[in-house]
């Protein structure tokens, strides 16, 4: 008689669009996939992390595999979000730049892409995140404009406006994988790998207090809020990604103190 499939995984988190899941593999399971892609599992604690993109479907499948090849499919219900959508009666811009602008922009884009793909073994993904800074929320995750029926790109993070030059801190442990100034759009930028495919980016900074390769602890000073790059005023733009999924930082946080 064949062995039964593994029991369901233990899951915790925010199972909604832009949310996240922390889970533990059950006894007998040796690997897992989500949306058909393998998930990195901590061999010691058997824990894993999954991010849910802003446009994740209302259901997703977590597949657990046992040592004997038996599988269990665990269907997850993902709550939809009511995104802030603005419809405008103007044509969508091309968003293009001059050849000289793109010559400068391409290496910046590649540096960001490569930094977000780095895995440093950080374990901040296990922590309950804290606010990097407190202040007025001037921009929310997922906000989008529709130009005569054509969707524009949505806001990929949250904007916090505490005032120019205000210091901000690491929301969780991690390793600094990018720390640069002078980027065309982002201005001063810091990207932190929190491990398990999860990373934070902070942009428009006026000052950087860390360097690439630094290991940072939750609550450690990272830099100062600014309006560098393409910004209409001083604020901290904070975005979170898991692999290619864009996540809502507010779903990682307690109420603002």
Give the structure's gist in a few sentences.
This protein is mainly β and 257 residues long. The protein has 1 helix and 21 strands. Strands 9, 12, 14, 15, 16, 18, 20 and 21 form an 8-stranded antiparallel sheet that branches. The protein has a 4-stranded antiparallel sheet with strand order 4-3-6-7, with no helix packed on it. A 3-stranded antiparallel sheet has the order 1-2-5, with no helix packed on it.
The major sheet is characterized as: 8 strands, antiparallel
Alpha-carbon distance between the two ends: 57 Å
Give the structural class.
mainly beta
Query: What is the CA-based Rg, rounded?
Result: 20 Å
DSSP strand count: 21
Order of helices and strands: EEEEEEEEHEEEEEEEEEEEEE
**Large-scale geometry:** globular
Low-confidence stretches: none
What is the helix fraction of residues, given as a range? under 10%
Enumerate how many helices there are, as a single number.
1
Question: On the 0-100 scale, what is the average pLDDT?
Answer: 94
How much of the sequence lies in strands comes to 35-45%
GO molecular function: metalloendopeptidase activity
InterPro entries: Cell_wall_metabolism_enzyme, Dup_hybrid_motif, M23ase_b-sheet_dom
Organism: Qipengyuania aquimaris
Protein name: M23 family metallopeptidase
């Amino acid at each position: 008689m064949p062995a039964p499939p593994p029991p369901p995984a233990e899951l915790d988190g925010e199972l909604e669009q832009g949310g996240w899941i922390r889970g533990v593999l059950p006894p007998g399971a040796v690997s897992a996939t989500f949306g058909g892609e393998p998930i990195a599992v901590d061999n010691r604690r058997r824990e894993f992390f999954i991010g849910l993109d802003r446009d994740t479907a209302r259901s997703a499948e977590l597949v657990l595999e046992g040592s004997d090849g038996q599988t269990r499919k665990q269907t997850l219900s993902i709550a939809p979000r009511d995104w802030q959508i603005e419809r405008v009666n103007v044509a969508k811009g091309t968003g293009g730049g001059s050849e000289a602008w793109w010559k400068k922009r391409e290496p910046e884009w590649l540096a960001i892409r490569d930094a977000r793909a780095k895995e440093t073994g950080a374990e901040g993904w296990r922590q309950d995140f804290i606010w990097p800074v407190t202040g007025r929320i001037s921009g929310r995750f997922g906000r989008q404009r529709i130009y005569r029926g054509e969707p524009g790109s949505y806001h990929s993070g949250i904007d916090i406006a505490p005032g120019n030059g205000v210091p901000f801190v690491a929301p969780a442990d991690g390793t600094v994988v990018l720390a640069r100034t002078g980027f065309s759009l982002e201005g001063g930028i810091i990207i932190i790998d929190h491990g398990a495919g999860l990373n934070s980016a902070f942009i428009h900074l006026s000052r950087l207090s860390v360097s690439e390769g630094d290991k940072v602890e939750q609550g450690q000073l990272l830099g100062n809020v600014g309006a560098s790059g393409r910004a209409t005023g001083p604020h901290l733009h904070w975005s979170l990604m898991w692999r290619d999924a864009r996540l809502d930082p507010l779903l990682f946080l307690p109420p603002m103190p």
